[in-house]
From TrEMBL:
Family: Belongs to the FPG family.
Catalytic reaction equation(s): Hydrolysis of DNA containing ring-opened 7-methylguanine residues, releasing 2,6-diamino-4-hydroxy-5-(N-methyl)formamidopyrimidine
Source organism of the structure: Aquipuribacter hungaricus
Protein's name in the database: DNA-formamidopyrimidine glycosylase family protein
Keyword Zinc: yes
Keyword NAD carried by entry: no
Domain FPG-type residue range list: 238-272
Residues covered by the Formamidopyrimidine-DNA glycosylase catalytic domain: 2-117
Highest taxon in the source lineage: Bacteria
Keywords: DNA damage, DNA repair, DNA-binding, Glycosidase, Hydrolase, Lyase, Metal-binding, Multifunctional enzyme, Zinc, Zinc-finger
SUPFAM superfamilies: Glucocorticoid receptor-like (DNA-binding domain), N-terminal domain of MutM-like DNA repair proteins, S13-like H2TH domain
InterPro entries for the chain: FPG_cat (IPR012319), FPG_N (IPR035937), H2TH_FPG (IPR015886), Ribosomal_uS13-like_H2TH (IPR010979), Znf_DNA_glyclase/AP_lyase (IPR000214)
Pfam family, one: H2TH
Length: 287
């Protein structure tokens, strides 16, 4: 799943290539991907891309005041093809869900939105105002903008575990399963720590770890083409996806908690005082 660093890198990539181009055509290859009908995607034709930004993990292409919003969800991603394919894309053939053809007066490029797997959650909206999309309007703060005090305000009052809260887009927008693992590891905080009960020291560590992990990942990702961003993310992980491998800080084997459709990783020595988290959704620390 792309998270804040990969989406930010994609935004900067598209800002350097799509801005100034005219939308020649929008081909919707998977009907389920389009979540709005008014204005239709054909309304984008003939308009120019004037900006690219993001809202959390949502990419926003500003097309002369109309906004093409893309939420990649778990298995969606983008490809930039320059020159664009000369053959017409066909619905139902492969992972391609939507193609935007962009003309710069000298040639045509294509922004392809793809989705792997069977769970079709890639979402595209065409709207006048991004804040009319409920998901976007409900997004929390950008985690890179939060200091210790800001984190304290964002987490205040919640009784949920820190792992759960860090991936709640209504609290902070842009962190997913992977980077939340690495942030907690860098902060030396248990995934099961009550988010609303973090003291000043742990809030400081959380703020510093967020800047270190996310900020560093953004720096490493910017400049890479979209097709390289997912592999680049995997190589940057401190504990996520590294079950059984030695922690890069202390050498302890990275442990895992598995749920039905997901899992997370942590270091028992660095984060839980040597205790192992039981591998059940409602478990507590094993004694």
């Amino acid at each position: 799943m792309p998270e804040l660093p990969e989406v930010e890198a994609l935004v900067q990539f598209l800002a350097g290539r799509a801005v100034g181009r005219v939308v020649a055509r929008v081909d919707v290859l998977a009907l389920n991907v389009l979540k709005t009908f008014d204005p239709p995607p054909t309304a984008l034709q003939g308009l120019s891309v004037v900006g690219v930004s993001r809202h959390g993990k949502v990419v926003d292409l500003d097309v002369d005041g109309l906004h093409l919003l893309v939420h990649f969800s778990r298995a969606g991603w983008a490809q930039w093809r320059d020159p664009a394919p000369t053959t017409m894309a066909r619905p139902g053939k492969g992972p391609l869900a939507l193609r935007v053809l962009l003309d710069d007066g000298e040639g045509m490029a294509a922004l392809d939105l793809t989705e792997a797997g069977t769970q079709k959650r890639l979402a595209v909206h065409v709207v006048h105002d991004p804040m009319t999309v409920p998901y976007v309007a409900a997004l929390g703060s950008d985690p890179l903008a939060l200091d210790a005090r800001g984190w304290g305000e964002a987490l205040a009052g919640t009784r949920q575990r820190l792992k759960t809260v860090l991936t709640d887009q209504k609290v902070v927008a842009g962190i997913g399963n992977a980077y939340s693992d690495d942030i907690m590891h860098a902060a030396r905080i248990s995934p099961f720590a009550p988010a609303g009960g973090l003291d000043e020291d742990r809030l400081e560590r959380l703020a510093d770890a967020t800047a270190l992990v996310l900020g560093g990942a953004v720096q490493q990702a910017v400049g890479l083409p979209p097709e390289a961003l997912k592999d680049g993310k995997r190589t940057r992980m401190r504990v996520h996806g590294r079950t059984g491998q030695p922690c890069e800080v202390c050498g302890t084997a990275v442990a895992e908690v598995s749920y039905t459709d997901t899992s997370f990783q942590y270091c028992p020595t660095c984060q839980t005082g040597g205790q192992v988290l039981a591998d059940r959704r409602l478990s507590r620390l094993l004694k």
